């Protein structure tokens, strides 16, 4: 089931909300179980075959979480470490089987294949969420072990398919609050506003500009070389398509959760306004960046073991982050490029510090604009590999962008979409800045205030109804979110 479908908006969501708050008046436990059941239905609507897999994963990790906590409380460090390693490896083994087995076999030249494996929806997200739970348990950060709340933590449908990647400690206290299970007009109003802003981004902006993406990349995949203008238009269009697609999903997840009285962590914060790649990864898929930092980069040694080791850790982390997005050389190169970008960026900052300059100080306006543009171009080059079906088509696109296959032509409609997208992305406030008054996400701190701030008044109601109508009318063809494939 998709957030951007009429069945979800007009049937599933009202029924789930009504049942949750009616049951919440009688029993918080019953309301939590109701929401778990609804989330499993939401997940199983796509393919019910994988519901037992999800349930098995939940029970396995809950059981091992309890055993790890018990071993820790008894001072059995060896047993605790053994349980942690085994349970994390089991989670990774499941992920490798479904997502990477055939890719690994083909990469080593093996003729053996395990056959066509249908990737369970959201397996990367619920696996990483539960690995974080196991590691946090071993670190003594987990304080509650209610099975119903743990199941809700994992299956909670606003985040289940495409994130954000949640920490146990930031969700369990909210599930335990009495206020969460009581209907609140403020939460409902704010949640609806954020949800429909996200729906507008998806159905109007992302799906609208997608029309100029697919033909270019499909042509390259089929061995036809696009011209320079067409290749650049297709690449820039994809940069904005994935931006609005993921930004829209992130808004919709936060808005849906707010309707239930739950505040999710921020996962997307105007990344194309970044002045460098370091800042980009603090703004793009923020909870995945947090997971990779806390559970991969830092355990590898972070920046504590010298400069060479630091850059190796950055590259290794981003290579694995690329593979997390998909089993293919294109994703690996995409991650590797960002690892190289980050290493160069950190090296540049280190050199500036040696010269007595503070790299964190604001830049002059012209230099700031150039830095944003340069960062955007670097990100776009990497997006070519992310979007391309294989390496040949990716290199064909890059050759075309370099003018090696002629100038070609471009679509005026596509150029108009690009200009509209540029104005929105670089000039307009983002959803968090608009909704700043109601603190839309966990730990959100506004970096720049906006004059355009939401208020519960008639003018905003009229504007929001108009926005929602445009978004709903645009649901002519339901399209999946790009991050659903991961």
Instruction: Give start-end ranges of low-pLDDT stretches.
Output: none
Kindly state the percentage of residues in helix. 55-70%
The major sheet is characterized as: none
Question: How much of the sequence is in beta strands?
Answer: under 5%
Counting helices, strands and paired strands, the structural category is mainly alpha
Taken together, the total number of domains comes to 2
Order of helices and strands: HHHHHHHHHHHHHHHHHHHHH
- The helix tally amounts to 21
Beta strands, count? 0
Q: Tell me the quaternary state.
A: single chain
For the termini, the CA-CA separation is 16 Å
Q: Whole-number radius of gyration? A: 23 Å
Shape descriptor: globular
Average per-residue pLDDT, rounded, comes to 90
Describe the structure.
The chain is mainly alpha-helical. 67% of the residues lie in helices and 0% in strands. The protein has two domains: 6-183, no CATH class; 187-275 and 363-485, no CATH class. It is globular, with a radius of gyration of 23 Å. The two termini are 16 Å apart.
In short:
Helices cover 67% and strands 0% of the residues. It has helices at 6-26, 28-44, 51-73, 77-99, 101-107, 123-138, 147-155, 157-160, 168-176, 185-209, 214-221, 228-259, 277-283, 286-297, 307-325, 329-354, 365-387, 391-401, 412-427, 431-434, 458-473.
């Amino acid at each position: 089931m998709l957030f951007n479908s009429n069945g979800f908006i007009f049937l599933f969501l009202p029924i789930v909300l009504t049942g949750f708050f009616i049951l919440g008046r009688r029993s918080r436990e019953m309301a939590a179980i109701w929401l778990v059941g609804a989330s499993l239905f939401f997940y199983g609507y796509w393919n019910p075959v994988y519901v037992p897999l999800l349930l098995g994963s939940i029970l396995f990790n809950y059981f091992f979480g309890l055993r790890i906590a018990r071993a820790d409380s008894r001072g059995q460090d060896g047993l605790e470490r053994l349980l942690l390693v085994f349970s994390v490896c089991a989670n990774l083994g499941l992920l490798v089987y479904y997502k990477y087995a055939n890719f690994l076999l083909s990469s080593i030249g093996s003729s053996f294949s395990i056959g066509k494996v249908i990737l369970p929806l959201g397996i990367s997200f619920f696996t990483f969420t539960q690995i974080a739970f196991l590691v946090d348990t071993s670190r003594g950060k987990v304080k509650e072990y209610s099975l119903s709340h743990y199941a809700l933590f994992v299956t909670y449908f606003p985040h289940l398919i495409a994130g954000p990647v949640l920490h146990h400690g930031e969700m369990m206290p909210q599930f335990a609050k009495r206020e969460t299970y009581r209907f609140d007009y403020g939460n409902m109003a704010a949640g609806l506003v954020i949800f429909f802003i996200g729906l507008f981004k998806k159905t109007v902006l992302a799906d609208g500009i997608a029309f100029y993406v697919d033909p270019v990349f499909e042509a390259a995949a089929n061995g036809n070389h696009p011209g320079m203008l067409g290749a650049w238009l297709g690449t820039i269009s994809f940069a904005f398509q994935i931006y609005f697609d993921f930004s829209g999903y992130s808004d919709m997840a936060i808005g849906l959760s707010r309707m239930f009285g739950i505040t999710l962590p921020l996962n997307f914060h105007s990344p194309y306004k970044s002045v460098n790649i370091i800042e980009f990864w603090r703004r793009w898929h923020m909870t995945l960046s947090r997971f990779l930092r806390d559970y991969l980069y830092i355990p590898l040694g972070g920046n504590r073991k010298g400069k060479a080791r630091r850059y190796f850790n950055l590259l290794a982390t981003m290579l694995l982050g690329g593979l997390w997005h998909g089993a293919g050389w294109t994703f690996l190169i995409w991650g590797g490029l960002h690892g190289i970008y980050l290493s160069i960026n950190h090296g540049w900052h280190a050199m500036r510090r040696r010269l007595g300059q503070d790299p964190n100080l604001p830049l002059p306006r012209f230099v700031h604009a150039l830095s944003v543009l340069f960062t955007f171009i670097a990100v776009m080059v990497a997006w070519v590999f992310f979007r391309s079906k294989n390496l040949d088509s990716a290199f064909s696109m890059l050759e075309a962008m370099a003018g090696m296959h002629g100038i070609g032509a471009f679509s005026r409609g596509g150029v108009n979409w690009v200009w509209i997208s540029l104005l929105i992305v670089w000039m307009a406030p983002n959803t968090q800045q608009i909704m700043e008054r109601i603190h839309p996400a966990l730990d959100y701190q506004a970096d720049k205030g906006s004059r355009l701030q939401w208020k519960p008044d008639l003018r905003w109601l009229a504007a929001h109804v108009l926005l929602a109508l445009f978004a709903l009318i645009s649901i002519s063809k339901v399209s999946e979110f790009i991050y659903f494939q991961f």
